[in-house]
Please model this.
Amino acid sequence: MLKNIIGGFAFFLCLIDSSFAQTSAPKPYGPVPSAKQLRWQEMESYAFVHFSLNTYTDQSWGFGNEDVNLFNPEKLDCRQWARICKESGMKGIIITAKHHCGFCLWPSKYTEYSVKNAPWKNGKGDVVKEMADACKEYGLKLGIYLSPWDRNSAEYGKPEYITYFRNQLTELLTNYGPIFEVWFDGANGGSGYYGGANETRTIDRTIYYDWKNTYALIHKLQPNCIIWNDGGERGDLRWVGTEAGYVGETNWSLLNATGDVPYDMLHYGVENGNAWVPAEVNTSIRPEWFYHPGEDSKVKTLPVLMDLYYNSIGRNGSMLLNFPIMPNGLIHERDEKNALEMARTVKEVFAKNLVGQSKITASNTRGKQQKFDAAKAIDDKKDTYWATDDGITKASLTINFGKPTTFNRFLVQEYIRLGQRIKSFSVEAMVNGAWKEIATATTIGYKRILRFKSVKATQVRFNITDAKSSPVISNIGIYNAPQILDIPAIIRNQSGEIIITPADAESEVYYTLDGSEPSPASKKYTGNVAIDGKLEIKAIAYDPATRKTSPVSHEKFDLPRKSWKILDVNDEKAYQVLDGNTTTSWHQPKDKTMPIELVIDLGKNENIIGFRYFPDQGLWGPGIISTYRFYVSNDNVQWKLVDEGEFSNIKNNPLWQVKKFANQKARYVKLSALKNTEGNNETGYAEVDLITE
Ligand code: FUL
Model:
């Protein structure tokens, strides 16, 4: 009896204890962000600017012996950079105070290799100071890129360099106001000028810089500064393993505090990591980091920039977008235009949260307490959240719009102060009275945004299908993003079919073949169109919801290349040269030496009056032909030279090259590469085409 009473009492105490636990806030689970990591995460988007002597030498990495006299930007205006970043919705700018070449954008006391010996402002200039002032004026935070590797310094590789490096860090962290982030690149050691030694110096990046003490210095000088380091010691943030502008769909803000960090860990984080190290997605608005005039036509377009947004901020990362500065000291107008277009589009997409005044219910609410109820996920306050009872790892929230509502984006945020918990979730929509799954995903973290085809529904159900601990959700948003009405891309494949691709999969496409301007009353594109002979096509993208149309895309195509054969090549990939797609390419085998020939059998005689060549757009070794000869033949034995010359400016502007000559009736053609832009034997082609009479 007594035993029973004691047992009952214990059970009662236990009930009180657990119901008390459910009325207080959930305990943090696993590692949590520090205050400065939280502040950084909420910035979401900020810029890089790359500017140095490389800007004047068309290089990616300076060797360290480049002449300081080259540095003389005649229109340098950090206020222009700051204005563009501000108008692009960014919250800060990280400047390359010193890149690998060692040249300093501020007049460091510790080296002669800086702006103080450049002609710009008679050596009285300080770009970092101008940047700091501009950031202040525009309400932006300032960050510093200080390359640990210094190819100019005579001391690099010796212990003395560490003192030099720390002296420079001290200047930068003392004289320019608050610094939100320092950026230490992972490229460390190798060949360099090194004060005239012109040699290769290797270091062990895990020990050489004595990061522990360097970090202590940063913490002392700028306690709120975040450290990014890909150079051997864990910082506050991590690289995502690629500079292409995306982090893994699964993205844990966790790593292990020690040990190697291979690509997979950088890209996806570590589910059970013991340290909070969130992801920073860095990429450039152009292919390269520094300005190269040849990339003026390669600025990331709106659809690509929107992908970047969703694949960084929309995947629990931050977006660090680089603007290369031109030799005159300004950001190029095309970079500005595209960045502002992205900002405008982001604003438009997220202008109206359709959750509005919807009714929201939860499958479970922590201790049945109002302070943790479902409404806290849609109250627009970042410090409130919906939470469940402890031990729950599956739960759902149902949002009832009360009327059919069209949407195509789902945004969700965990209250990460209590850790990152969710492992998987799904989104369902009530369509015509039945639940339909519209998306599934893995992690959430600070922010996750899902994109899917527009759906019209009366209710939405957000299901947490697995979690490390009970879910804590601070925000949900449902949006209807307008279609991106960029001009559609038109290509003709080798079999002659026309393929039209709008920038946004949901846009409709209309086209004409008679030279007239297309409109939504023209023919609708519903799939590949097979057309014989030459043709001229104009197409537009159209969004039926807003009735907006894109600018017109206009292409002319010569004969279909269906029966063409590439001779003397035993590689199916060679036909990428004829597939109409300028993003695919083929390279001649490595063992060939110039002149290198591409021979095509047209299958029958044609009246040829010219040819077109589109080089490989790849970054590394694209094999861009610069000097050529063009031959025709009727039997593949006797060849007649019909044109020769250079593709002028192809290095700086590697787009379509068009060459015309007098009419030649022939069945075989041969493009012979005599030289490429790099002076080696690499020969690549994205496309080769003929112009016929
Ligand atoms: C890289 C560097 O080597 C590039 O030059 C650039 O600064 C980029 C942001 O980081 O790894």
Remarks:
- Residues 381 and 474 are 8 Å apart (CA to CA).
- Residues 60-61, 185, 187, 282, 289 surround beta-L-fucopyranose (CB under 6 Å).
